[in-house]
Predict the 3D structure of the following.
Amino acid sequence: MIDSPDRMMFDVTPEQRAVGDLARALARGEIAPHVAAWDREHRFPRELYRTLTEAGLMGIIVPERYGGSGADYVSYALAIEELAQVDAGTAVTVSVHAMICVAIEALGNDDQKDHYLPMLAGGDVLAGFALTEPGAGSDAAALRSTAMHDGTHYLLRGRKQWCTNGSFAGVTMGMFRTGGPGTRGISAFLIDNELPGIVVEKVTEKLGIHTSNTCDLAFDDVRVPSTALLGAEGSGLTNALTALTSGRIGIAAQATGILAACLESSVAFAKDREAFGKPIGSFEGISFKIARMATDLDAARLLVYRAAALADRGAPFAVEASKAKLFASTAARLHAAEAVQIHGGYGYTTDFPVERYYRDAKITEIYEGTSEIQQIIIGRSLLGRLE
Ligand SMILES: Cc1cc2nc3c(=O)[nH]c(=O)nc-3n(C[C@H](O)[C@H](O)[C@H](O)COP(=O)(O)OP(=O)(O)OC[C@H]3O[C@@H](n4cnc5c(N)ncnc54)[C@H](O)[C@@H]3O)c2cc1C
């Protein structure tokens, strides 16, 4: 039997479980029948987000007073895991959207919260995040896009790369340089995507997560009012990292969902497929792979739920979120390869979903901080900065 979150000895409340169950039902009913075709067509299923909004999942972590579901981080993690078990692309779309909602709630002023949160929780508006540039990824402080003062406005100029949800977003949290070099010269803005001068330059073709949208955005003298500043001028990198810390719970949950899907497919296949007159699951060479997969799934879940529970308590959770993301993403990538191996030649074909899990798993080790960056965060928490 594959353990469910309730059997993890982790205190999932009935309310949290209900959110996970809702996401599970929706994923299996509305996404599973289409996901193979969407993946093949590299299609972003825009219409799906109305259904997810109606189910309360697009405003999952937004307080009820802003029209959201008011769920906690543990519920959010359970929901992302369930979506990712069926489609990792949908899971990251929802996760990035939620990350921006969390950032607005944590860093925004009352006007920004009143304006954006109801729209993001209850409407069709998707949110995106624009930090990375062609010359600045892990080293985000090297970003070069500028926001120049222009009376009561700023003029945004530059290129942002690989923006998840970018082509469909109604609002983007974007980081631009308002001052000199280094971390203190960066500010965060909430930018309405229909403003003149914002151009989708390129939709990125990817190895996996084909149902998520990734694009490069050009900002050619985009005029935003000074009220678009999110947080204080000069605090943009800190604000971006605050957003990413919560986002890592989502990506760790996404990786955990991929891992759970690998286990489900592998168990079913190993019981059914026969070789040398026996089910292949009777060979230790196969059952040991499945045993490791199940053990790492438990470990990933516990790390994700711990980080989420700390966030719910208002306790520091950055290092725990990094550990969860590091472990879950590594395990997802390793076990997706093992799932393909267990399925033999069938695993390499599109007749089974494990080839998709294999392609989808890799990105979880890269975005929202690579595994190397997570190790830097974890290492520094123990050693400090030894420079
Ligand atoms: C599908 C997809 C979606 C994305 N979505 C978004 C998004 O919505 N918004 C956004 O802003 N960005 C997004 N990104 C960008 C993503 O966050 C970056 O790709 C990631 O942070 C890594 O940056 P980089 O690709 O520039 O790699 P680099 O920073 O150039 O790193 C290259 C390699 O060097 C390693 N490395 C770098 N520095 C160190 C170090 N100090 N020590 C050890 N190793 C190091 C890295 O770990 C990596 O292995 C997305 C990327 C992809 C592919």
Notes: The longest strand covers residues 153-164. The mean pLDDT is 96. Residues 96, 129-132, 137-138, 162-164, 206, 214, 363, 366-368, 370, 372-373 surround flavin-adenine dinucleotide (CB under 6 Å).
